[in-house]
Design goal:
- By secondary structure, the protein is mainly alpha-helical.
- It folds into two domains: 71 residues; 89 residues.
- It is 82% helix and 0% strand.
- Helix 2 runs antiparallel to helix 3, helix 5 packs parallel to helix 7 and helix 6 runs antiparallel to helix 7.
- The longest helix has 32 residues.
Length: 185
């Protein structure tokens, strides 16, 4: 933020810098809303963070810089957090799926998150974004395995498939990247 305020923009996109300032302001408000269990407001603040991160990430697409990696990690985290926050918001409104059941709804949410993560990761060709998705699914898997009592095998199975899908996507992007480098020579 200091670079934006002082005008030191050497080698950095000033639009991305200003987007980052605005994102941080929304993030600070989001933390307060989440801390005070204002779930609807929290979700309302996450949406602009997500949109602004997408805008910044589009400007950084194709860059191989630490700044780009940081933004794609942040975008990955906020994507996963937004899916979780939408789910939390629905539960706070009393959404309690009886049919077809909470396990199926959990599986559907995981699949929606997976589709978003894979499409976005491939669009941006971002290993770091995809690795955040892999990390989030490994957290879900760890929780279910640590609390394992023989139930929710469907959730565990879908999470494992989601993780394998992301790993295959990462390998695909790596192969594409190596192929592009080979063609440049």
């Amino acid at each position: 933020m200091l670079r934006v305020i002082t005008g030191d923009q050497e080698g950095h996109d000033p639009i991305v810098q200003w987007l980052f300032v605005i994102i941080n302001l929304f993030n600070g408000l989001w933390i307060l809303a989440w801390h005070y269990d204002l779930i609807g407001l929290s979700l309302g603040l996450m949406i602009p963070i997500l949109m602004l991160l997408i805008m910044a990430s589009k400007r950084l697409k194709g860059e191989k810089t630490l700044t780009a990696v940081a933004f794609f990690v942040y975008l990955g985290w906020i994507t996963v957090a937004t899916v979780a926050n939408v789910t939390t918001f629905l539960v706070s409104l009393g959404f309690n799926p009886i049919e077809p059941g909470p396990v199926l709804w959990t599986v559907l949410i995981i699949l929606v998150a997976l589709i978003i993560i894979v499409i976005t990761g491939v669009y941006f060709k971002s290993f770091s974004y995809l690795l955040v998705g892999l990390w989030s699914f490994s957290g879900i898997l760890s929780k279910h395995l640590n609390d394992f009592d023989g139930r929710h095998l469907e959730v565990i199975s879908v999470v494992v498939v989601a993780m394998m899908t992301i790993i295959v996507t990462l390998l695909f992007l790596l192969a594409m990247s190596l192929q592009r480098q080979k063609l440049k020579k």
